[in-house]
Amino acid sequence: xxxxxxxxxxxxxxxxxxxxxxxxxxxxxxxxxxxxxxxxxxxxxxxxxxxxxxxxxxxxxxxxxxxxxxxxxxxxxxxxxxxxxxxxxxxxxxxxxxxxxxxxxxxxxxxxxxxxxxxxxxxxxxxxxxxxxxxxxxxxxxxxxxxxxxxxxxxxxxxxxxxxxxxxxxxxxxxxxxxxxxxxxxxxxxxxxxxxxxxxxxxxxxxxxxxxxxxxxxxxxxxxxxxxxxxxxxxxxxxxxxxxxxxxxxxxxxxxxxxxxxxxxxxxxxxxxxxxxxxxxxxxxxxxxxxxxxxxxxxxxxxxxxxxxxxxxxxxxxxxxxxxxxxxxxxxxxxxxxxxxxxxxxxxxxxxxxxxxxxxxxxxxxxxxxxxxxxxxxxxxxxxxxxxxxxxxxxxxxxxxxxxxxxxxxxxxxxxxxxxxxxxxxxxxxxxxxxxxxxxxxxxxxxxxxxxxxxxxxxxxxxxxxxxxxxxxxxxxxxxxxxxxxxxxxxxxxxxxxxxxxxxxxxxxxxxxxxxxxxxxxxxxxxxxxxxxxxxxxxxxxxxxxxxxxxxxxxxxxxxxxxxxxxxxxxxxxxxxxxxxxxxxxxxxxxxxxxxxxxxxxxxxxxxxxxxxxxxxxxxxxxxxxxxxxxxxxxxxxxxxxxxxxxxxxxxxxxxxxxxxxxxxxxxxxxxxxxxxxxxxxxxxxxxxxxxxxxxxxxxxxxxxxxxxxxxxxxxxxxxxxxxxxxxxxxxxxxxxxxxxxxxxxxxxxxxxxxxxxxxxxxxxxxxxxxxxxxxxxxxxxxxxxxxxxxxxxxxxxxxxxxxxxxxxxxxxxxxxxxxxxxxxxxxxxxxxxxxxxxxxxxxxxxxxxxxxxxxxxxxxxxxxxxxxxxxxxxxxxxxxxxxxxxxxxxxxxxxxxxxxxxxxxxxxxxxxxxx
Length: 916
Description:
The protein has 916 residues and is of the alpha/beta class. The protein contains 35 helices and 24 strands. Helix 17 runs antiparallel to helix 19. It is globular and about 115 Å long. The two termini are 32 Å apart. The N terminus is likely disordered.
């Protein structure tokens, strides 16, 4: 390497050189900490080797081998364009999160779009933050300013397909160049004629991941459509569709496999070790008898809801339908929630009535079960009076009715449970805040240790509550408060009221019944008898077996069942259709039956039954996969930055607490609390989900690294006596030290980070790490007058390569000798075998020639001649193969004996050392 090129490597731009020279002229010496931080920052922000996986180590997940293998396969073999088609329940979301993390850390993904079903946007947001330290906002109709402005300010977003594909919004997504697009539940893209498909097809994406457990539902054309999104030129859909429609046999399956192998990964439960290690779960339904008065109230409200629903469906008023569904669920939850909601609505209606002229007619219509076309004042006033009267009558009837006695049943259950097992931790779910307040108040008065958890709380408050719950007994949570939280240290889930969407019920249970759970999980359903809750829970138990097993196909079943509607609407429709008859919820029952059959048929025709093997490489064997192992540097860098910023508040063996300097309060750190609690231990991070997992991609570390960008040049002074133990006392007064990358090859290319010290007296040292003796500079006045330039040191750089080469050759000398012995032994055996074949060939050849001269051979002689010719050909083939193997062995030996080393120009940091 030339001196000039090294100089250019050290000073990649004039600004750095000028900064160095100016600093040099002033004679100022900084602490060695600046140099260390420069080194750490450069190492942790370098371009990572593509063969090394970072996300399995840096994420808060206990990733299974199949998930790690899928991550490696998609990144290194599929270039980030793939269909993730694992069977249900095998963690496709985790796989997508790991792949996304890899690309972000490799600086290959800045603009990220995640498209998911409407009900999963918040869950994806929470999962990415909790497990992968990725802060990503949700964009939907609640955005307070233009979508273009939002996408300009946020390079990564989660959105729903229903929102993103709308006219007026989709063009904003089309205009942006996305580094990676992730689509969850991608089987909704199966039809090319739908806006779902057209939206994703129109996105400009360098990489794309489609997640679906059932890529092959009804026909191969649907699968080909998904493939076309990932690789537009991989399949001619029309031609392939005709071909496979005619003949779907083993031969065509193999043809399909060869196409899909480079585009799709599918792991099956039966192939994977450790996935089914969850303890069992069981259910207990506690029926709550309602008084005659309450049943009459329920009937009165039901008829009010049915009447309003029928009008609203006719007039397409979805807002009013949502209100009616909420009202029905509140009534079976608690009288307090029901009355509170009705009073607020009556107050609002009276306010609208008294100021009707000032209200927007469209806003008024949301409160009434009438057509949006009937917005004249007279009609609105009439309907308002009818609605106010109906609510007033119901509220009057509520005055003489006692509350649902669910609390009495809950208290009896809790006392019985704690008498049996005092270590139980119970998670109680309710949909309504008023009910939540009532539950907490009564439980506290009854002597229980209770925490309350709901949406709207700060991150700090939520973390503190979860920590207290882990030490205590009971957590009462709403749906909004539970999203994204993993509470596997609890073992009992109580559904105080029952959502009409089975997915929400499964999500509740999933907070507890998940990997890491050690106990059997008990699910308790408090059900108001002779209400819609009573009928619904029986159907869920009978049809879905929801409370005993994890239903992986649940979302697919509901997708079939609901079509374009949400599950709550399907339940409401079935309730309205059957109320007052002996059919109960027969329509819902039959709808579920039909949907389950469709899913079974879909799975039957899917890859699970087709014989197509699309498992990732190294499914249960990770020996060939390399993992990021710079965890020690991450911890050192964290500690160094905390010390530099003086923001460490407290620490022990398990966790540390620190604040964020004001100048780092930007980007994703602006959402963090004033005091951060974190740990470097993955085990602790998995068990204490309320504290941060401090990894290479934690926002504090990435922001701090970004802050260290001025120059990698630092200056420090060291005492000769402190350096004596490692031989530095022989160095001259002035030295230059730099961190660089050495590249050398033997069998394959290798890289090593080395610490090199050059002196002005023709000495140099090459070390594989920074010596501990250099961690603490001498305590002397910070200004030293000394004429010290880097230029004289450049002349010594060329000898580094020779020294390193000699060092490596000595280290590998024994290995080379051993390989030479093995090679010569193998060569001798192959040569002997070739000689033996030659002798055998000559013997047989003589016989063949002798028999061939005889033109009057009998039958036996003819057969012998044929046999000999075959043997001769076989020997010739074997001999030829051995000769090729020998030549190949010679080439391999020759290439492996080539040994070269060079100094990489990527110098991490430079330290000017003055030794006194």
